[in-house]
Design a protein that fits this description.
The complex is a heterodimer of chains A (301) and B (808). Chain A is an alpha+beta fold. Chain A has eleven helices and 14 strands. In chain A, helix 9 runs antiparallel to helix 10 and helix 10 crosses helix 11. Chain A is globular. Chain B is α+β, with helices and mostly antiparallel strands and 808 residues long. Chain B has three domains: 155 residues, Aldehyde oxidase/xanthine dehydrogenase, molybdopterin binding domain (Aldehyde Oxidoreductase, domain 4), CATH 3.30.365; 181 residues, Aldehyde Oxidoreductase, domain 3, CATH 3.90.1170.50; 379 residues, Aldehyde Oxidoreductase, domain 4, CATH 3.30.365.10. Chain B has 18 helices and 30 strands. In chain B, the strands form eight sheets. Chain B has a seven-stranded mixed beta sheet. In chain B, helix 10 packs parallel to helix 16 and helix 13 packs parallel to helix 14. The radius of gyration of chain B is 27 Å and the shape is globular. Classes of the chains: A alpha+beta (301), B alpha+beta (808). At the A-B interface, helix 11 of A face helix 3 and helix 17 of B.
Chain lengths: 301, 808
């Protein structure tokens, strides 16, 4: 594999240095490199031709996982594998662990990061629906200071985010609260695949539901109408479940492409939502399969 | 057949140690030193366009560039069966990705950068991206010079059309046959294009030395065929066969994609352009998809008549193949199917039309199964539907029509031995055919499916094999053959054949990959024929060695040759139990005589094989009179699948496949081929799917969107079943089984889907999406969007199967 485009590579020692480099990019622009699982493929395809690549994966400010002040903090350079193995993430963001388990392959997960995933911001990004249902905060640094952007305001369009020019995501914070949830991902086969459609759900002890979808709109989206139908139902079933599925099918806006037809995506959003809700409500009362399954391919007991 | 000691036992692979230790070398592992040059190819962005001008000046001035080569430098065509492929596009491009020029530079990056600087001016032509368009009257022609191309005598291209070949087979009187039928079913089935996806993409490094010697190190299934094709195409440079050498180290998968010649000839001419320096051309994964060869897409119309009692009375099978921009290899796939599209059944009245059509899609060629997977999908689906309509068990329907030894084939020759009924019984037993299985989950349902298969190698009548065997001082041996070890275990099987004849342990026989200068001749490693053809050559070579071993021992020890035999690496005597002469004592140095002289010398042997009974000279209008196929291998496969009724997702609980190998020379390797064939077959059946944009661009030349199976996608259980009805002209009775193991996958799955869900899918692949939508009453064909998997638009049932302009 050859990368034909020429660029400078710099590995700054501090966040400040990194931001300085990104703020004054050379001709062709500057791009940050964390896991590189998207960037290297784009470079190789010639889809991007930056003049400078800033390697941020060693920056101390972007490392670490900690729980403080009612929030779970995950540094932007922490790869999925590390998050999956962290007891703090398993406890406070189990839906992220479940989604990470069906994201790409072990080799990719060892490098790729959720922060990178949401910066690439393709409609099928698996982190998107999860961070939406967690109402996560995206922490961004620029030379002018830091900024917190709610996940709900992050995704603007396919491959476009609220990240200011020259900015870097430093970490993602998820508020800590008792909850249960589930992530379902539709794939073309059992091996690694981009989602044909995905669903994330989260429910708290009062029966407040949050629902989000991936690959069925230009960006990952919240399912507010679906959530309203479910509100207050700790164990939705029967008519409520059906109404929720119908609402979900109505509020997504999928397209037809080579990965799936619009019809199948819509149909599966309903199926995945029903299964995710049943699994999450079982988990809420200490039943249901442990986190880390894909209910589209494995049966939730 | 007498008892065998080595044949029929699972010898350890002779290439195993080299592969597990990483010692096995592939083309990219070879070192060529600092003089090595790197090439990048300039590719067409258009499916069909006239080339007005190629401006290479900027590229030539780019840093590191040593030479830019275009079609003006090498204005030649090539091809294995028909010379319709261009080394570089000349006056026009015929598919997106076709090579127009190549840049040779000091580094790969410099070559890639400079390739972008080559400016090509095009005048776009209307692309022919549908079969109906290609076949209509006054169609845009892809190959106006079709009538001038060199070709083999059994191809019938129609000059002035887009038809590269049309194989017609006629037997009996189909009109009469349909009159005798109590039930007739007619329907259309489609199979899209597929890609081989070997782990190792095509790679060639070529070197034209100062003495005019051209050497290629290629990842190939066909070193000798490549040498031959290149010697013909490159004749204008004064190159003859003795000037060209093809070395093929280990190959990381081929599946037919590395048969014949594709990109290797580009590397060869670049080396010629850069005399004295080696040039490396290695394809990227994208190029592997779009500019080697793909499996042809096909649309097939089947009309079959049966009596109430199940006997098939007549078959009309019409297949229109999307061959892409070149049919130099693909037309022979079309030919093979045109002869064999009855499937393994006795059918008195047959009409087959197999038509090879040029389109502005990438060229197609050989792919494991060589057309048989494609036509079995429709045929074996059709049989189940007919069985259902006449109220007969689908296996019983097949039993009543199963072909047997001596039956007359569609082209008039007689069927070889093979136990199709036994294969059906074995598979039916293994999957408990006829017994319904219930899922424990309310949203799931279990179904079963079966399908039979057959396949013959598609070889020229003079495709031949040869082998050399020689002894070393310690009684170990070198075996020289030129079949390719492409994972199937060929080298091991050849060692076993020699070992059986000579009583030498397999571990003492070294077998290496080919070098056309030094190794024995082999036509190509294709068609599942090398165990049979090359095995016969090896056996002949071993018999030659055996004769010399005995003759030398007889002469050197003053014994009668007739009394001597081989056992445990020694010559022994039936008359004198005390006599035992170890091979190592004399196979190089001879046998010392009382007076100090020596008798004998280095012992070696040679063997060759050609199927001398084969001929392609049948009547072009009926195919009667020839004997184009050497033999068929038959078998059957069955599956138990659990379906999720909401998502269409499938869990394959069990697959059983029985194949009549004649004789499994290495049963473990045969089982390996069965498992591999099933996994590959299921992937093409269930999710592999090439997609094109309406302008002819390939949309998924990558594993992001073209899915091949992972370990997670393998069935829970695979039961390989080996039957052994000896092939009289095979080595120890063996016949080929390699490709056959994937042929039944798609119809078997389609039949299981109908069994479980009552839905009949007639377009491959049989995705979860199609199933889930069908269960909701939605036809996937109506909602799939504008990307193309196969070369026709609209619904398959509306395809007219017309050939315009009265061509016949």
């Amino acid at each position: 594999m050859s990368i034909a485009c020429e660029f400078e590579y710099v590995r700054p020692a501090s966040l400040k240095d990194a931001l300085r480099l990104l703020a004054r990019p050379p001709e062709g622009g500057a791009m940050p490199l964390a896991g590189g699982s998207d960037l290297i493929a784009w470079l190789r395809d010639g889809a991007v031709q930056p003049g400078l690549v800033v390697d941020i994966k060693q920056l101390p400010e972007l490392r670490g996982i900690r729980v403080s002040g009612g929030g779970l903090w995950m540094g932007a350079a922490v790869p999925f594998s590390e998050l999956m193995e962290s007891p703090a993430v398993q406890k406070h963001a189990p839906v992220l662990v479940e989604a990470a388990g069906v994201l790409a392959s072990v080799g990719i997960r060892n490098r790729a990061t959720p922060a990178g995933n949401i910066c690439s911001a393709v409609p099928c990004c698996d982190s998107g629906p999860v961070l939406l249902v967690y109402e996560a905060e995206i922490h961004v640094a620029t030379l002018r200071g830091t900024k917190v952007i709610p996940a709900a305001n992050w995704f603007l369009a396919p491959r476009r985010t609220a990240l200011p020019p020259g900015g870097l995501v430093t970490g993602i914070r998820i508020p800590v609260a008792r909850h249960a949830g589930a992530f379902a991902k539709l794939k073309r086969y059992r091996g690694e695949d981009l989602a044909q459609a995905s669903v994330a759900v989260r429910v708290d002890a009062k029966g407040a539901w949050r629902v989000a979808f991936g690959s069925v709109a230009p960006t990952p989206i919240r399912g507010r109408k679906t959530e309203k139908i479910l509100a207050g139902h700790k164990q939705p079933e029967g008519a409520v479940l059906e109404q929720a599925a119908t609402a979900a099918e109505a509020e997504v806006a999928p397209i037809t492409d080579i990965r799936s037809s619009e019809h199948y995506r819509r149909l599966m959003v309903g199926v995945m939502l029903r299964r995710s809700i049943l699994l999450a409500s079982a988990r809420l009362v200490g039943k249901g399969a442990a986190y880390g399954i894909n209910i589209i391919e494995e049966d939730a007991p | 057949m007498s008892r065998t000691h080595i044949v029929g036992h699972s010898a350890i692979r002779v290439d195993g140690l080299a592969k597990v230790t990483g010692a096995a070398q592939y083309v990219d592992d070879l070192e060529f030193g600092p003089g090595l040059l790197h090439a990048a190819v300039v590719e067409s962005p258009h499916a069909h366009a006239e080339i007005l001008k190629i401006d290479t000046r900027a590229a030539e001035k780019a840093p590191g560039v040593v030479r830019v080569v275009t079609g003006a430098d090498f204005p030649y065509t090539f091809g294995l069966y028909m010379s319709d492929r261009y080394i570089f596009a000349m006056d026009r491009v015929r598919f997106v990705g076709e090579q127009i020029a190549a840049v040779i530079a000091e580094t790969p990056e410099e070559a890639l950068r400079a390739a972008k600087l080559v400016k090509v001016a095009y005048r776009p032509l209307p692309p022919v991206l549908s079969l109906a368009e290609a076949l209509k009257k006054d169609a845009v022609l892809l190959h106006p010079k079709l009538g001038e191309y060199q070709r083999v005598p059994w191809f019938y291209p129609k000059a002035g059309t887009n038809i590269a070949h049309w194989r017609k087979t006629r037997k009996g009187d189909p009109a009469e046959g349909f009159k005798q039928a109590d039930y007739i079913l007619e329907d259309t089935y489609t199979v899209p294009r597929y890609a081989h996806c070997p782990i190792e993409p095509h790679a060639t490094t070529a070197f034209f030395d100062m003495s005019g010697r051209l050497t290629l190190w290629a990842s190939s299934q066909s070193p000798f065929a490549q040498r031959d094709v290149m010697a013909i195409a490159l004749k204008p440079f004064g190159l003859t066969h003795r000037d060209i050498r093809v070395v093929t180290p280990y190959v990381g998968g081929g599946f037919g994609g590395k048969a014949g010649v594709s990109m290797e000839i580009i590397a060869a001419v670049l080396a010629i352009a850069m005399k004295g320096r080696p040039v490396r051309l290695h394809w990227t994964r994208e190029q592997e998809f779009r500019n080697t060869s793909q499996r042809q897409g096909v649309i097939a119309r089947i009309k079959m008549g049966v009596r109430k009692t199940g006997e098939i009375t007549a078959l009309e099978h019409t297949l229109h193949w999307d061959a892409g921009a070149s049919a130099e290899y693909g037309a022979n796939v079309v030919n093979a199917v045109g002869l064999s599209a009855t499937g393994p059944y006795r059918i008195p009245h047959v009409k087959i039309d197999s038509v090879c059509v040029y389109t502005n899609m990438p060229p197609c060629g050989a792919y494991r199964g060589f057309g048989y997977s494609e036509f079995h999908f429709g045929l074996e689906s059709h049989l189940n539907r007919i069985a259902k309509a006449i109220g007969m068990d689908p296996v019983e329907l097949r039993r009543r029509n199963a072909i047997r030894e001596g039956d007359t084939l569609a082209y008039g020759a007689a069927m070889n031995p093979g136990n199709l009924l036994g294969a059906m019984d074995a598979v039916a037993g293994e999957i408990q055919w006829g017994r319904k299985k219930k899922s424990k989950k309310s949203h799931k349902v279990i179904g079963k499916g079966m399908a039979c298969f057959w396949k013959a190698p598609a070889l020229p009548p003079n495709a031949s094999s040869s082998a050399y065997l020689k002894f070393n001082e310690d009684g170990s041996m070198n075996l020289s053959v030129s079949g390719m070890e492409i994972g199937q275990g060929f080298l091991t099987v050849m060692a076993q054949v020699a070992a059986e004849v000579l009583t030498v342990p397999v571990a003492k026989i070294r077998v290496e990959t080919p070098d056309t200068d030094r190794n024995a001749y082999e036509w190509q490693t294709v068609g599942s024929h090398v165990t049979w053809g090359c095995g016969n050559a090896v056996r002949a070579a071993a018999e030659d060695v055996k004769k010399k071993l005995i003759a030398t021992a007889a002469r050197g020890t003053k014994r009668k040759a007739a009394d001597l035999y081989l056992q445990d690496e020694c010559v022994k005597s039936r008359k004198d139990a005390s006599f035992s002469l170890p091979f190592r004592d004399y196979v190089i140095s001879g046998i010392m005589q009382p007076d100090g002289r020596f008798i004998g010398g280095p012992i070696h042997g040679t063997g060759m094989f050609m199927p001398e009974f084969t001929t392609t000279q049948g009547d072009p209008e009926t195919s009667q009179g020839g004997h184009p196929n050497v033999h068929y291998t038959v078998g059957c496969a069955g599956v138990i699948v659990e379906f999720d009724k909401e998502t269409g997702k499938m869990d394959i609980l069990k697959v059983a496949l029985a194949v009549d190998a004649g004789k499994a020379i290495n049963p473990q390797l045969v089982r390996g081929q069965i498992v591999g064939g099933i996994v590959q077959g299921l992937a093409t059946a269930l999710y592999e799917d090439i997609r094109y944009a309406p302008d002819g661009r390939l949309l998924n030349p990558n594993f992001t969107d073209y899915k091949i199976p992972t370990a997670l996608d393998c069935p829970a259980e695979i039961v390989p079943i080996i039957l052994e009805t000896p092939q009289p002209d095979g080595p120890f009775g063996a016949r080929g089984i390699g490709e056959h193991t994937m042929i039944a996958s798609a119809p078997m799955m389609a039949n299981a889907i109908e069994d479980a869900l009552g839905v009949r899918l007639k377009t491959m692949p049989l995705t979860a999406e199609k199933i889930a939508l069908a269960l909701k009453g939605i036809d996937y064909e109506e909602v799939k969007g504008d990307s193309l998997g196969f070369c026709f638009r609209g619904r398959p049932c509306d395809y007219p199967f017309e050939v315009g302009g009265g061509i016949s």
